[in-house]
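FAQ
Q: What does a multi-component entry look like?
A: The components come first, one per line:
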Amino acid sequence: MIKVLNGGIEIVVEDWPGRVGYMGLGMSPSGALDNLALQLGNIIVGNDPGEAGIEITAGYCSFEFTEDRVICLTGTDMSATVNGKPVPVWEAFKVYEGDQLQFGHFADQGFRAYILIAGGIDVPLYLESKSTCLFGAYGGFEGRKLKPGDELMGGEVADQDALIGRKLNPQYMPEYKNTWDVRLIVGPASVPDYVTEEGMDYLFSHEHKVRHDSNRSGYRLEELPSFFFARENGGEGGDHPSNWIESGYNMLGAVNINGNFPTLLIGDGPTFGGLMCSANIIYADLWKIGQTIPGRDKIRFIQTTQEEAKKARIQQLQMLKKPDLVM
Amino acid sequence: MGFNLEAHMPGLVARVTCEVGQEVEENQELVVLNCMKTEISCLSPKPGRVKEIMVAEWDEMDVGIPMIKLEEL
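Then the predicted structure of the entire assembly, as tokens:
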């Protein structure tokens, strides 16, 4: 149905919420890094919101269709073209057998784009999910990123022509930026036992640049000052004050402290380990991490509460059900 | 006529795989960038001769920063 001509930087099959229920066994949930773009696109093409799509990181890739399909592109605008002609983002359109879909590079804001296909993607479910876990080499399409020559099959679809022209109501369009406001709940390794008051002030008052060595497992931020830590060492956990005795990580969205580097654990990230987690990104803001450009964008943390986090999560889930979401 | 090979991803220069004076072919790897813990090849857009290497290992790149100056053959 869709064949990869040029694999670009990283193209993977991901669904949402990924492979949940196995974190206790050490298996990451994976799933779309911008779950909002994936879900909105699926709704536009009439799929279940969590159906698998193709996640494109940074662009520079191309595809050929081997059958007629209605598709929708979401996420950042990578100046995609079909047979050389520009195509819309956030709007369903039809592609025909032999059409070539080409992506340029990522825009000034946003790092990932999604291809959602009416009928979904027919890859085998592995532990109830179609998501690829790159470091574990399982799920998705043969447990790996896509390369030239790979062909993905589409699921069953009825009356797909009725979907053409459906588009996202602009009022619900996610806003992409270069400095992202991300809401955090503090804990479990926090003030005063693990982090100093000054350290927590630093976390919430600075813009943290995302390092170039960020990927689907973790988004690494610039170094924290040593006054961040309340302890001199990790005690029985190790020499560095970021060490502690191995425990489960609050996936997704833990702010894990690796030495002096905070790392946001996302998608394919680890589910347990011996480094402290000082805060957690709220569910409603997880999608922002996937659109953050490594080596360029900055993140500003905003402290919030469990009550506010729950409210934001419910609001986001309700938004996906609004009757005027798609026009 | 000269042309430049520019970085197409933000990242760090992992290594330069060409030398000044070397004749290179289209799509020949000239620089390797490290981004997302992945090594990404930067290929010559067309045949040419390397005139100047403008980057070194560990230099931080963003999209559009010129890395290699080439002249057409």
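Q: Is there any commentary attached?
A: Sometimes. For this entry: The domain at 2-71 of chain B is CATH 2.40.50.100 (OB fold (Dihydrolipoamide Acetyltransferase, E2P)).
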